[in-house]
Amino acid sequence: MRGFLLNRLSQSLALLVIVSIIGFVILSLIPGGPLSQYARDPSMTQQDMERLAEQLGLNRPLWIQYFDWVWRLVQGDWGRSFRDGTSVLAVIGRHIFATLLLMGTSTVIAIAIGTWIGIRGATHRYSMFDYLATIGAMVALSIPTFWFGLVGIYVFSLQLGWVPAGNMYTIGDGSVLNYLHHLILPSVVLSLVHVAVWSRYMRTATLDAISQDFVKTARAKGLSERRILLKHVVGNALLPMITLAGVQLPSILTGALVTETVFTWPGMGRLFLDSLGYSDYPVVMGLLIFSAILVILGNLIADIAVAIVDPRIRLG
Amino acid sequence: MTALAVTTAPSRWWHNRAVHRFISHRLALLGLTMITLLTLACVLGPYLLPYDSLHIDLRARFAPPMTGHHYLGTDPLGRDLAARLLMAGRISLLVGFSAMLLSIVIGTLVGVVAGYRGGWIGAVLMRTVDGFLSFPSIFLVLALAAALRPSPIMITVIIAVTKWMEVARIVEAEVRSLREREFVQAGRMLGLSGTHIMFREILPNAMGPIIVAASLTVARAILLEAYISFLGFGIQPPLPSWGNMLNGAQKYLASAPWLAIIPGAAITIAVTSFNFIGDGLRDALDVRDDHI
Predict the structure, then answer these.
(1) What is the per-residue pLDDT for B5?
(2) Are the beta carbons of A121 and A134 closer than 8 angstroms?
(3) pLDDT tens, B198-216?
(4) Is B201:B184 a contact under the CB 8 Å cutoff?
C-alpha cells in the first residue's frame, strides 16, 4: 500500500511540475505580458511600469521567476491577485464551494440515473429500452453543454418560470431551499453527458458480471433473480465505476467551467475566465495548479476506495 | 479456364464485407446522409442564398425565422442567420476535420513507436499520455488560446494538441497486440528496418481502430472548437463559427431565442452524425474497445 502510494504521488508530482512549467511559459507568451492591464492606463508612465515590474519581480529571467513562484507555492504563498491584491488562496477559497456543490450534485444525479439505465439496459438487452438508451447516450454525448444550458434556461425559466435563470442564490435569501432551487437546472445540465457515460459503462460492467460463474452458482442455489441482481451482479458491476468516477473528474471540471458561465454560477470556472480576461496571472496559475491537485487527489481517493472495497486488489 | 476467370475477377469495393456491414447499419447511414447534406449546404448554400453573411441591414434587426427571404431570421445587426450559419459551418467543419487529421498523425506516430519499441521509450510515452489524459486540459487550452493569436489555424493546432492522446492509446494497444505476430517476425527475419516494419507492415493492419478513432475525433474536435469559441477565446468575429455565434446569444435569449437555438442545433446534428458514423464503422470493422 505504501509503495503504491509513493509511486502514484511521485508520478503526480512530476505531472504537476510539467503542467506548471507549460502554464508558466504559455502565460509569458501573452502579448503585453502580465502588465498589459496597466499598460492601457494612460496615466501610467514608462517609469511607473518599470517600478511595477521591479516590485513584482517581472524583470527577472523567466526561469528565476518560475523557481521563485514554486518556492513560495510550497511555502503556502500562492501570490496575490493583480486585481485587488487579495491572496490567491483566499480568492480560490471563496469560489471553491460553489464549484464543488455543482460538481457533487451533478455527479450524484449522473450516478443514480446512469446506473439505473445501465442495469436495465443490461438485463433487458436488445429491448426497445436498451436500443433507445444506446441512441440517447450517443446524442447526449453530442450536445454541447452550453447549448443544453441555454435551451434549458429558455424552456424552464423563461417560458415556464419554474426555476431561476442563473446565480447560486437570491440576494437576501440564503436558505437551503433557495440554494436547491437555483441548483436544479445547472446540475441537471452538467450531469447529462455523465449520465450517458455512466449508463454505457454500467451496461458493459453489468453484462460482464452477469456472465460470471458466481451468478450461475447463485442461480443454482435457487436465489430469486431480484436477489441475484441486487446482491451479486450490481455489487460487482459497481466496482469499476469507482475508478470511472475518478477518471471522469477532468471532464466534469470542464463541464462545470462552461455550465458556470451559462448560469452565472460563482465558481472556479468563471473565476478562471474572468482572471484570464483581466490577465490576472497569479490567479490563473493558482487555478491551474489547484485544479490539477484536485483531479490527482480525486483519482487517488478512487484507487484507494477500490482497494478497500475489493479484497481481491492488493496495492503495492 | 473458368477457375482462372473466377480468381482474377476484380473484387469491387461494394462487395467488401465491411462496406456491406456499414451500409446495413442504419444509424451510421443516417449520420453519413446528414453530414453529407450539411457539408453540401455549407459549401454550396452561401452561393444560393439571397444575402451575404456579412451584409448588415439595421432595418431588419432581430427578424424571426421565416420573415421574407430571411429563412432563419436575422441577428442583432440584421445579418442573415442562414447565410452566417452556413459560412460558420465551413469554418467549424474545416477546423474539426483538420484538427482530426493532425491529431491522428501525432497520435499514430506516438502510438506506433510506443507500441512497437516498448521498453522504457514506450513507458515514458504512455505515461505522458496517461498524465495528460488525467488533467483538466480545458484550463491549459483556454490559456493557450488567450496567449496565441486565435486564427483558425492556431485553434486547429491547439485542439489537435489536446486530442491526440486518446488516438495514441488506441494505436499503442493495437500495435502491441500485433508486434509478435508471424508476419512481423517474418519481416524481422528478412532484415527489414524497424521503420519499415512499423509503418509498412504493422500500421496497415492497425487501420481499423484508427479509422474509428478518426470519426469520433472529428466529433470531439467540433465540440471543443464550439466550447472555446463560445467562451470567446476561439474563432474571432467577424469570422463566424457555430461556437462564436452562440457567444452573444444568451443576452437575447428572451427576445430572440432562435439566435441560440439554431447554431447549437447545427453543432448537435454534426457531432451526432460523426458519432453515429464512428459507431457504424466500429461494427463494420469489428473493432472492440470499451470506449463509447
Answers:
(1) 46
(2) yes
(3) 888 888 888 888 998 999 9
(4) yes
Strand partners, A117: none
Residues of B in contact with A153 (CB under 8 A): 250, 253
Nearest alpha carbon to residue B222 among B146, B289, B277, B273: B273
Best to test chain A binding among B27, B138, B251 (most A CBs inside 10 Å): B138
Please answer yes or no on whether A29 and B254 come within 8 Å at the CB atom: no
What length is written for chain A?
316
What distance in Å separates the CA atoms of residue A273 and residue A270, rounded to the nearest whole number? 5
Q: What is the pLDDT of residue B14?
A: 62
* Rounded Cα distance, A179 and A185, in Å: 11
* Spatial CA neighbour of A313 closest among A195, B145, B107, A304: A304
Q: What is the DSSP letter of A193?
A: H
A23 touches chain B (CB under 8 A): yes
Tell me the percentage of chain A whose pLDDT exceeds 70. 96
pLDDT computed for residue B9 by the predictor = 52
| Closest alpha carbon to B265 in B17, B85, B11 | B85
Angle at B269 between CA B268 and CA B273, to 5 degrees: 115
Label residue A57 by pLDDT band (50, 70, 90): confident
Which of A15, A204, A262 lies nearest to residue B131, judging by beta carbons?
A15
Q: Which grid coordinates belong to A21? A: 512549467
A305 in contact with B, Cβ within 8 Å: no
Residue B248's alpha-carbon distances to B95, B230, B243, in angstroms, are 21, 8, 10
Assess contact for A267 and A258: CB atoms under 8 A. no
A249 and B136: CB-CB below 8 Å? yes
3-state secondary structure of A80: strand
Tell me the average pLDDT across A49-76: 82
Contact B108, B210 (CB under 8 A): yes
Percent of chain B with pLDDT over 70: 93
Interface test with B, best of A8, A9, A132, A142 (most B CBs within 10 A): A142
User: Which residues in chain B are contacts of A138 at CB distance < 8 A?
Assistant: 27, 272, 275-276, 279, 292
Is the pLDDT score of A129 beyond 70? yes
- Cell numbers for B218, please give them: 472529428
Q: Is A291 on the interface with B (CB under 8 A)?
A: yes
Taking the CB of residue B292, how many other CB atoms lie within 10 A of it? 17
Residue B137, pLDDT above cutoff 80? no
